[in-house]
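Standup notes
- DV: blocked on the single-chain target, sequence here:
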Amino acid sequence: MSDQTARTIREFVLTRFPSVALDDAVDIFTLGFVNSLFAMELVMFLEKEFALRIPNEDMSLDNFRTVAAMTALVGRLRSPDTASVGEA
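- DV (later): unblocked, structure below
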């Protein structure tokens, strides 16, 4: 699942910044293209695409810096231990 998750996230980022050489470890915030609006788009994309809710305590910039970090975040939030996160 994580390979597909990473691919999906990478494709989303590349739709906004197609000329960027992007691998899973590139800090997209240091590239100079990302602003606060795109950061919110990332959150909304991850929540919608992966049917999850990102809790406030996970709204750390470090969770969104790289494709690998976002993939790990999605994996944590979709694990059986956190399956009920966002359900109410």
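- Follow-up: The two ends are 25 Å apart (CA to CA).
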